[in-house]
Design goal:
The complex is a heterodimer of chains A (about 190) and B (about 500). Chain A has about 190 residues and is mainly α. Chain A has one domain. Chain A contains six helices and no strands. In chain A, helix 1 runs antiparallel to helix 2 and helix 2 packs across helix 3. The longest helix of chain A has about 35 residues. Chain B folds into two domains: about 300 residues, 3-Layer(aba) Sandwich (Alkaline Phosphatase, subunit A), CATH 3.40.720.10; about 60 residues, no CATH class. In chain B, strands 4-3-5-1-6-9-2-10 form an eight-stranded mixed beta sheet, with helices on both faces. In chain B, strands 11-12-13-14 form a four-stranded antiparallel beta sheet, covered by helices on one side. In chain B, strands 7-8 form a two-stranded antiparallel ribbon. Chain B starts with 6 loop residues before the first helix and ends in a 5-residue tail after the last helix. The interface between A and B is medium-sized, with 37 and 28 residues.
């Protein structure tokens, strides 16, 4: 499949839907994991019904956040050269959303699993004149390849592009399932507020 | 002689009707103890949430946590053995406000409301001729205040003394289910507290906004701005103090004011000026044996939490001092009964931190009670065991009101016409998993009589506790280190028999 297609639309309905579902997927996945993790203390705090309600609010908030990320992704898409094929544009944006979300998860996992950076690394950073600057540089060195390499591969390799599309196709099914949770969550939230 | 009952006789008798209707009321007035003093004086009840008497220097705590209070108490009646009705906001506050124990008002569970008969039987209905104003930072206490709203002249909205939130829409949109909405919103955006949150991106954005907005306050409160623990629920106790101090001189008198402030309830976010005050004082509390209801918190962790709580108490103490100053400057202390108390305590021992526990040891149920009598210049120490349910009838009596017949409390010394009953039993009830509409089947209960305290736990199936009984002599062993249940079985049996009989009595109306 060629990267450049003259007169290719910026987005198609199908492309936007799949991009939206790619925004839904990581955010809902993370919310659900933490909501399940919270169930026991929430039940302990009040009762099971309240615990389910809190998880429902969580899903509704995750939906709103997904919409915001989706809008940002669409806007980012305008930065991509207009002559790009819409399928490549959507695949690229979807992968960017997923990678960014994965890094955000890694960031939170440190606290969740109570893991801290190696003592030696922290000592090294602390010894520098501008420790925060060093930390940012290290983070950039780690993050940049994970964004740049997949981006290049999508653009250069047809095989990778097809693989990414296949992956997106499978994930969208799961993400659509999460939307069902959102609907249930919304119903519960409405019931609790009437 | 005319025996016929004519129209004129009927009119004469009808004229007596208003008097006959007043008769029962008059009988009650004549029959009740006469107020000693203070008719038409204002009543101001200040509640600091989770304020444990165990941590108050005036009550013997080793750290000087309440220097201002100690000074002001030179003009107060100080109750040294005062007990809350329950161990957390809902039952504790409901007991104070209704003058009944949790097994009567039935607000056992978190966010519960009192049984329907107490909606019109509470502090506010007892002072119906007063201007009645109330406020609380505490959402669960606010649920109760809203239930009593019809008996009040003014219920100050819960959110009005919070710092203006960025995301006020949570309050606006989910007002009918605010507690759950707040918990969910907090778990979504508050990444600072635990380092993780439901939201992957919004939480980061929220933190940046919050950091920018509260840059100055963050320096003043390095542990975090005081809050209910929820996102967008930040407040400053000094704002509440100022608000109350300025409001009270401008409301109609006599008034009944109920102000329930959240500190020293966690999170223990004390100002910078108090941080480090107790961190290196070398105080090592007794390392008590781990309890069956332990949360497995280490001794070191409990020490750390205790330091933070004690340092937060300094903030409470400072603000109470400021409030007192406001009242005095406004001349209100000359005609106001000021009561300082709490809804429950807090504990940092036996592997347990806080108050959400089934273990009812002294730090979690013994609370301060100080009554500042109008014009009193000397202190008075009362060692009689008293209960939160005594506050309502006592204040009603002191202000010339009818003592409600539904309260379960007695008049507090020294205001009672007779000496305190040395054999009076004090009860505390915790039944957080027990619906109010069914009999008590899973609860922690306490009976204190004489120098003994018996703890009776039952129905904790998840911990394989069918029944668990402990007996302590709190006069000779105030730290509750020696369980006397096996060695003083006769005393334990007597107390247990009384407690079980009481449980049978309170359960009876709820048996199907």
């Amino acid at each position: 499949m060629t990267l450049v297609k003259p007169n290719s639309p910026l987005y198609t309905k199908q492309g936007l839907w799949s991009l939206f579902l790619m925004c839904v997927l990581p955010l809902h996945f993370w919310t659900l994991i933490l909501a399940f993790r919270d169930l026991s203390w929430l039940i302990d705090r009040s009762n099971l019904w309240d615990a389910i309600t809190v998880a429902s609010y969580g899903m509704v908030f995750a939906f709103v956040e997904s919409m915001l990320i989706f809008l940002i992704a669409i806007l980012l898409g305008f930065l991509v050269p207009k002559y790009w094929d819409y399928q490549h544009r959507t695949a690229l944006l979807s992968i960017l959303v997923i990678i960014t979300a994965l890094w955000a998860m890694v960031d939170q996992l440190f606290a969740l699993l109570n893991v801290s950076l190696p003592g030696g690394l922290l000592y090294f950073i602390a010894q520098q004149g501008h420790p925060l600057r060093v930390l940012y540089i290290i983070a950039l060195l780690l993050v940049a390849p994970t964004v740049l390499i997949p981006t290049c591969l999508i653009l250069k390799s047809d095989k990778v592009f097809k693989m990414v599309r296949g992956l997106i196709g499978r994930f969208t099914l799961l993400a659509a399932f999460y939307l069902l949770f959102d609907v249930i969550g919304l119903i519960i939230v409405v019931i609790r507020n009437v | 002689m005319k025996n016929k009952f004519n129209r004129r006789d009927f009119i004469k008798l009808a004229g007596l009707m208003p008097f006959s209707m007043m008769a029962p009321r008059l009988e009650k007035v004549i029959g009740s103890p006469q107020p000693l003093s203070g008719q038409n004086k204002n009543v101001l009840v200040i509640v600091f949430d989770a304020f444990s008497a165990y941590h108050v220097s005036m009550y013997g705590y080793q750290r000087e946590t309440t220097p201002n209070l100690a000074k002001l108490a030179e003009r107060a009646v100080i109750y040294h053995n005062h007990y809350a009705g329950g161990n957390f906001t809902t039952p504790g506050t409901a007991s104070l406000l209704t003058g009944t124990l949790p097994w009567s008002h039935r607000a056992f569970e978190a966010k519960a409301t009192v049984a329907p008969q107490y909606v019109t039987r509470n502090f506010f209905s007892a002072f119906e001729d007063y201007y009645r104003i109330a406020y609380t930072h505490n959402g669960w206490a606010n649920i109760l205040l809203e239930q009593f709203h019809a008996q009040m002249s003014e219920l100050v909205p819960w959110e009005s003394l919070f710092l203006r939130p960025y995301f006020g829409f949570v309050l606006d949109m989910f007002g009918k289910d605010i507690d759950n909405a707040m918990v969910a919103w907090t778990r979504n955006v508050d990444i600072k507290q635990y380092g993780y949150s439901y939201s992957l991106f919004l939480s980061q954005f929220y933190e940046v906004l919050k950091e920018q907005r509260y840059a100055t306050l963050n320096k003043e409160f390095p542990r975090g701005i005081p809050s209910t623990g929820f996102a967008d629920n930040d407040f400053l106790l000094e704002n509440a103090t100022d608000w109350v101090g300025k409001k009270l001189p401008n409301i109609p008198q006599p008034f009944l004011g109920y102000f329930h402030f959240l500190p020293p309830h966690g999170p223990y976010n004390t100002p910078l000026e108090f941080i480090g005050r107790f961190g290196h004082d070398g105080y090592k509390p007794i390392n008590k044996p781990v309890d069956v209801f332990s949360e497995n918190r280490s001794y070191a962790d409990l020490l750390e939490r205790r330091i933070e709580y004690d340092e937060y108490l300094l903030y409470v103490d400072r603000e109470f001092g400021r409030l007192f100053n406001y009242l005095e400057t406004a001349g209100l202390m000359e005609n106001t009964w000021l009561v300082l108390t709490s809804d429950h305590g807090e504990m940092f021992e036996r592997g347990i931190s806080g108050h959400s526990t089934n273990a009812l040891y002294q730090p979690v149920i013994r609370i301060p009670l100080l009554i500042f009598e109008p014009g009193r210049k000397t202190s008075m120490d009362i060692y009689t065991r008293t209960s939160a349910v005594d506050v309502l009838p006592t204040l009603a009596h002191l202000t010339g009101h009818q003592i409600p017949d539904w309260t379960e409390g007695v008049l507090l010394p020294p205001y009672a016409p007779t000496s305190p009953d040395p054999n009076r039993s004090i009860y505390v009830v915790e039944a957080n998993r027990n619906d109010g509409s069914i009999p008590l089947t899973r609860a922690s209960t306490v009976i204190v009589r004489g120098g003994y305290k018996l703890l009776y736990y039952f129905g904790y199936k998840e911990r394989e506790i069918d029944e668990l009984i402990r007996l302590f002599n709190i006069e000779t062993d105030p730290e509750e280190l020696i369980d006397l249940y096996a060695s003083q079985k006769d005393i334990a049996d007597e107390l247990l028999k009384e407690l079980k009989s009481k449980l049978d009595e309170v359960n009876r109306p709820y048996l199907k």
